[in-house]
Amino acid sequence: MKKINTAMTLTAAALAMSLSAPLMAKEFSYTYAELGVADVETGNNDGDLFYGGGSLALDRNVFIRGSLGFLDYEPGEYDVVSLGVGTPMNLSPTSDLVLALDYAFADPDKGDNDIDTLTASATSRTWLTNNLEGNLSAGLAHQESDFGDDSGAIVGAGLRLYVAPQISVAANISRSFVGDLDTDSIGVSGRVQF
Length: 194
What we know:
Helix content: under 10%
Keywords: Signal
Order of helices and strands: HEEEEEEEEEE
Shape: globular
Pfam family, one: OMP_b-brl
Mean pLDDT: 89
Protein name: Outer membrane beta-barrel protein
Number of helices: 1
InterPro entries: Beta-barrel_OMP, OMP/PagP_B-barrel
């Protein structure tokens, strides 16, 4: 509950600070480095994900991205690696639609129940004000593990506040409907874009 209150406070502060400036069109960056933490809950199990990653725009139409993470989760710990490719499409002077395909691999510290996940997603990036970006995402994921295969939907939303033109902080929530139990995640991150 404390993490939810922190995210709500960040969101309220971001809205209050940024509503006073007129909206100006500007491009989104797809080259950046970031660090983040998230609270992850599945059923009665709760864990914390710490990660670092980035994205590199190969040109205006294609980017690659990846991350390395550590999930401290009941009943064990996981190393998490993800790699992906995406393409942004300009919808308006203030909005992009991002189509992406990502692969994630989770390796447990005990046993050999690796989890492989392939996700196809669509994400909107919209300037709400000159320094506040809103995101909505939806996707389909297929997951394989020693316990079997499963597919399902993933949805999410977030706000990103630019405290300087190249530096931003974000709060995000997401829900995964893959598997027998839904997985909820709420996180915060910091990003430097280039």
